[in-house]
Amino acid sequence: MKLNRRLFLRGAGATIALPPLESFGSGSLLSKTAPSVDSGISNAPVKRLVTIGTYLGFHTPSWFPKETGTGYKISNVLKPLEDMRSEFSLFSGLDHRAPNGHKNWSNFLTGKGTPGISLDQIVAREVGHQSRFASLQVTCGSAGEGRMSFTKEGISLPSIGRPSVLYRKLFSSDSDKARMDYILQSNRSALDLVLDEARSLKKQVSVRDAQKLDEYFSSVREVEQKVQKQRQWLKVPTPKVDFKLPAYDPVAPDLSLECEAIMYDLMALALETDSTRVISLLVPGQGQVFTIEGEKLSAGYHGLSHHGNDPGKIAEFNQVGKQQVTNFGHFLRSLKDKKDVHGQPLLDTTAVFYGSGMGDANTHNNSRLPVLLAGGEFRHGAHHSIDRNKETGATPLLGDLFLTIMESMGVEQERFAKASRNMNDYLL
Question: Residues 159-182, buried b or exposed e (16+ Cβ, 10 A)?
Fold first, then answer.
């Protein structure tokens, strides 16, 4: 086999393009071994994960309470959650110690300067086989420049922005399923067809490239397995729900708050019907001019986020934030009311992580992120203030909170980006 920079594997009519390999250029031949993940999912107390991020964040002085502990006075923006305070924990001072700027918002669930795999996708790899959809990525209309969910290869996953599309995906008709089955009816593996060439190639490349090929072929296998999983789930009756979609999708930017409310309703249904156990929602932030309680705001959402400490703009920015928290509160109450197959409230077995990858949109600062964790029967009700100025290693990072969430779901991880402890002392 002749090695060249544009290489394909071919066999029995199948063709697979290969990723760049160092054997076709310069590079070290050192081998790296990826850590394995052991899982105890079946006995884990938390069965589901929902991650929600608002692209422009909040005015943090209006988000963080001044007091700590369980006796804190709830802040202005969080006022819509007053009746739910025993169901969530607030954290101030948490972040990933990652770079600042809008382009680094994608660190929110990855913790890395260059996006790696996100929290939701780590969990989806462990629990995804238990439901029709391994995970769902949702937004409101267009996500704009926002990216939140990433595969292990660092590829951002597209989000569903139309409520009608999400509804059809979750509750497709028999005719829809028949068309999909026709599309997926070939169950022969492309890798099987090129197996001989793949074995020959691995003998001719470096140790690192051989590992890269194994990882690449594993990724192709994963895609094929997902396709076949879709076929299997097509045989399972689609859940029937009593939900009426609006006459049109409110996907215009100025209507994204309305779209957000509908998406929350559909997300709750997706969890209630066990259609998925992992959902991420990106709440977009662009130049939309919102109308709240019948009054049109004076400037676009993005413009308000760059308020320059102007009290009037801050007040309007907080109106948007408060409405977003109102929608979120409705979602939490819905999960508290809905029951799983064992009769438990969904909120008791669902970890809901809410906040933003932007600490201060006015200055594009990504430190001291506004975040909270709800559900999952953790020890809730308090505001935990983290002293970010302690020496390195002496204070928790946001990734430590992620480690606790994953541990509660039976997903064992020793590290998440720069974090290596956990926050069990705060929540368990």
Answer: bbbbbeebbebbbeeeeebeeeee
